[in-house]
Amino acid sequence: MAALGPLSRITRLGCNFCRNHRLVFNRNSQKRGIASCIDPSYGLTDEQKEFQKVAFDFAANEMAPHMAEWDQKEVFPVETMRKAAQLGFGGIYTRPEVGGSGLSRLDTSIIFEALSTGCVSTTAYISIHNMCAWMIDTFGNDEQRERFCPDLCSMEKFASYCLTEPGSGSDAASLLTSAQRKGDHYVLNGSKAFISGGGDTDVYVVMCRTGGKGPKGISCLVVEKGTPGLSFGKKEKKVGWNCQPTRAVIFEDCSVPATNRLGEEGQGFNIAMKGLNGGRINIASCSLGAAHASVLLARDHLLVRKQFGKTLANNQFLQFKLAEMATKLVASRLLVREAATALQENRADAVSLCSMAKLFVTDECFNVCNQALQMHGGYGYLKDYAVQQFVRDIRVHQILEGTNEVMRMIISRNLLTES
Amino acid sequence: MSGRVLVGVKRVIDYAVKIRVKPDNTGVVTDGVKHSMNPFCEIAVEEAVKLKEKKLVKEVVAVSCGPQQSQETIRTALAMGADRGIHVEVSGNDYETLGPLQVSKIMAALAKKEDAQIIILGKQAIDDDCNQTGQMTAALLDWPQGTFASEVTLDGDKIKVVREIDGGLETIKINTPAVLTADLRLNTPRYATLPNIMKAKKKKIANVKPADLGVNLTSKLEVLRVEDPPQRQAGMKVETVEDLVGKLKELGKV
After folding, report:
1. In this complex, is the C-beta atom of A21 within 8 Å of any C-beta atom belonging to chain B?
2. Top-level EC class, please (chain A) (predicted)?
3. Which of A20, A35, A50 has its CB closest to that of B192?
4. What pLDDT does residue A1 have?
5. H or E element that contains A5
6. Which of A74, A79, A401, A418 is flagged as catalytic?
7. A44-156 and A158-264, same CATH topology
8. In this complex, how many residue pairs, one in chain A and one in chain B, have their CB atoms less than 8 Å apart?
9. What's the rounded Cα separation, in Å, for the pair A413 and A405?
10. So what's the architecture of A158-264 in CATH?
11. Shortest CA distance from A14: residue in chain B
């Protein structure tokens, strides 16, 4: 727990158990205490609770102890992610025939939410990786699925999603990276910006222009690292998400076999957007995990820190603030889970709901984490305390996978378009 | 030889929970509190599953005694690799007074009924710290016991057990059938994988009543009072060694 340094660690009555390295209290261990209103296991099936338990245990034991170090040293935790893949986290909603776990979007959301309490940045990368594996599994032909998916699901190989360019972010359909058909190859020219994992990953799912302007001219190609003409920019220095390298991906007469094209020419934008629907739920789920962890950290701090002769928990303003944070957290969780269910069932409102969930949840959870930091006072600003990392890590969730402004565009278009 | 291993798993308050004593001092608060499998039981399950993976035993059966919620604990064992479960239903007052003697009677009865070759239990539960069930079960069955096991090796129809004792490590060889209790360093329990959790859904959990096993659950123990340990008192700082010795003499410690 991120309690004040000199405060004693709370040990169990009469048990000399703390020798087990898995169970030593570290500054990040969550106090899984009296069932509270924010317990994320409410309303889940027994099986989902089991999935959640594994994810929480993995997060607490394998990720949380290293979260700060990974952030400060900018480590891409390959071994830990491979351990996660062994449990089935490499292709959670990818089909079992190619090595995935074949779970639902809701199961996926629950898992990412739990993993995120251990490290947001790593979990967010795992979710991007999952999105790419799903895109190949869903839109690729059998040969492509068998070629790429098993290695992705086991995380023998890592994937990156390449849509954004220096000149096209929100206006994704105006992308310029060109792919000229030359015999049985496409020759790619252009560059992608802000690519998560770029340079360290093996498989790049690239949206590029094979046809005319606009979304209908875009196709989706899978480019493998080592292909001549594929190079990377410098590693970006970021405020958060430091467990994953972010680089520009550069194509200079990069020749890619036509058999690497997912789906038909002109289908690329559609594939990209379908991938993002799920990606938005995943990113929102990561925000949920961070907010959940932050509320627990804030609660623990309020129970321990004393000012004016009493613990902060006696202060009505802080009590009410904590209540508001908890309420926003639970409301966010319900919205994400509903969006996940809608997407799974292919409901008519799925796309809007995913956008609403991403918009609402990333904004609200950032506020929750920010307020949790405020409640820590000066300590909240120190890197010794986890809450600042949650704040820094989820700040970008309001920007990527479609800015929250673009989410508003999608929702308003749904409302205002004459049907 | 049936090649069957019985593993006892207990549902206890999660190790990370901050324990609170009930205001009436009759026990600790359990309502609404997060529970999970006793960590030593996890180690026991892991060892049993490892033996099965090495093809040294044929079947791993997870057993838990308690109310409806104990089935969750059995499911966790199934997700770790146990083949099937047995839930011995004990609830209400019987559950309040359920202790090592009652559980060991149940385990002994089940061992005979299931023709078990090995019983693996955790060395103790983290709620009562009794460290008795394994030993009592062995006594009731008149089986050898390898307790505080930090290493278990099957050798024909014998088992070599390295035990963690006060003086260090003791190695014994016992005949099967036998009872083993798992100590901390026996192994590191695996995480259940997503596919295994899904497979566990299809595995069977049989429901059994203690009466069906001919076990009487009455306990001769009565809990009189439960209270928090005393608050840690402040110490005293002294300037010199002479002061320290003086103070120790004053307090009658030296």
Report:
1. no
2. oxidoreductase
3. A50
4. 40
5. none
6. A401
7. no
8. 82
9. 12
10. Beta Barrel (2.40)
11. B129
